[in-house]
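dumping this here before i forget
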Amino acid sequence: MKNYIIRRILQMIPVMLGILLILFIILEMAPGTPASNMMNPKATPEQKAELIEKLGLNRPWHERFISWIGEALKGNLGYSITHKKPVTAVMKDYMGATLLLSLVSLAISVLLGVPIGIISATKQYSFADNALTVFSLIGISIPSFFFGLLLLKNFAVDVQLFPLFGLENPLLFNPTFWEKFKDISWHLVLPSIVLGLGSTASFMRYTRSSMLEVIKQDYIRTARAKGLKEKVVIYRHAFRNAAIPIITLLGFQIPALLSGAVITESIFGLPGLGKISIEATMTRNYPLILGINAMLAFLTLIGALVADILYAVADPRIRYD
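structure:
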């Protein structure tokens, strides 16, 4: 296992470099430059050339890419043009809200999607299975921006049960820990439902399909013939062997939720990475765009590695040479 992990980490290096190269080329091909938004329309050619040189945009793109990689290895992802501070500092300021929203949504997805998928598989073709299948198809198909606006309209505007925007109530003065915890939790209810709906449906479909394959195997019939309780047969024998596809999905859900938070955070006005990603795109803040996407790419590779390691935990038959 140790040698396998080392090999996978070494394999991740060229893959990460390839992803960063593609991102860099895409940004290079995009119309406009960061200097175009910062430049005074009445600036002289000399002033424009000075600004371009100050931003380092006068050098060839491959030189800037190599320079960026060298600085990134030192922990420096560049300087955010609009925030007037390092990219790492900007991401640190906004990372908390996005991670909190993503983790809550992931917990909802796993705690609801997996049990619902098991129930759907064990009651195949029943009314409950058909109803849950319809629910999963709706969850996968409905656009997050439409569902978010629908929840805001019904539960924040009409009923006024949940807050409309933000992560905290600005009117709370010196709140206690539990008051702050309750306030943030209340603000996260609607965004978490929106972000977690699609993931819940995906976990349900993967779990159902995998469980249906396993519960028809001979060893499951043997376990039942031995007189084991149905819960033991389903959860100890069947589910453990059906967990491989679910682990694969779980490994990619965290980066997927982080990237999916862009729309959700915009709808609910949350101060997270989604908000500054849109702002960076609109202002051509390329260092920040590159830094955020580099982080998402890194998390995706780490998720794949963690999923591979968890395979051996779920199924002892899996061994890595």
